[in-house]
Amino acid sequence: MAAANEDKPKRDTYRHGNLRNALIEAAVELARQGGPEAVVLRAATRQAGVAPNAAYRHFADRGALLHAVSQAAMAQVARTMEAEQAAVPPTEDPAADARARFRAVGTGYLRYAQEEPGLFRTAFHVPGDMTDAAADTAAGATGKTPFELLGDALDGLVDAGLLPEDRRPGAEFLAWSAVHGIAVLLIDGPLRGLHPTQAYDAGQHVIDMIERGI
Q1: Which PROSITE patterns does this UniProt record tie to the protein (predicted)?
Q2: Taking a C-beta distance cutoff of 8 angstroms, is the pair 154, 163 a contact?
Q3: The CATH number of 2-213 is which of 1.10.357.10, 3.30.950.10, 3.30.465.10, 1.20.1600.10?
Q4: Residue with more model confidence, 201 or 18
């Protein structure tokens, strides 16, 4: 009897709403290994050590859990972009600083895609409008989403005189489309076999192209 009791899931740590977070953490690990297809309610509850029905107290269905994981992954994208920007050494040249911070946004985005392909796929798996993209749960340490970080970097280019004000509107969509495109090619497309150095160079060339284009 004692052995049987030892085999029961330990749920003490999941009181007071912690179960929701535990399930998201478990599902994030599933997505890390297998992408969005691996996010399954039963697998998440098994990994969290609770009964399958327990998940329905917090998530109506698999789609709800997948959306939560998507938001968590998007927040990680934001934090990676922030870390890339924080690593940029400041100079006495405002224009050079603005340009470096803009490039860091794209470099961080690409770094996350290559280091965490499963989570990167999951971040963009659940369709949503720009209201979802600006949700607090998808924000980084600064409270900003990847889209907002890109917008700030573009505003910095305007302030530094590198981007004409009349070309600023909508520039986020052009920059994001190009960087996201190369990211997908590098992790799922014909460029996925490139050596890491070649992959990095390809990403930097795309960022070069964006700079010239805007």
Answers
A1: HTH_TETR_2 (PS50977)
A2: yes
A3: 1.10.357.10
A4: 201
3-state class percentages of the chain: helix first, strand second, coil last, to nearest 5: 75, 0, 25
Q: Tokens 């924000």 map to which residue?
A: 139
Does an H or E element contain 12, and which? none
pLDDT in tens, 27-65: 999 999 999 999 998 899 998 888 878 888 888 888 899
Residues 81 and 193: beta-carbon distance below 8 Å: no
How many Cβ atoms sit within 10 Å of the Cβ of residue 132? 16
Q: What are phi and psi of 169, to 5 degrees?
A: -55, 130
For residues 12 and 39, the model is more confident at 39
Tokens of 13: 């740590």
Q: Above 90 in pLDDT, residue 206?
A: yes
CA dihedral 200, 204, 210, 212 (to 10 degrees): -160
Distance, in Å, from the CA atom of 44 to the CA atom of 33, rounded to the nearest integer, reads 13
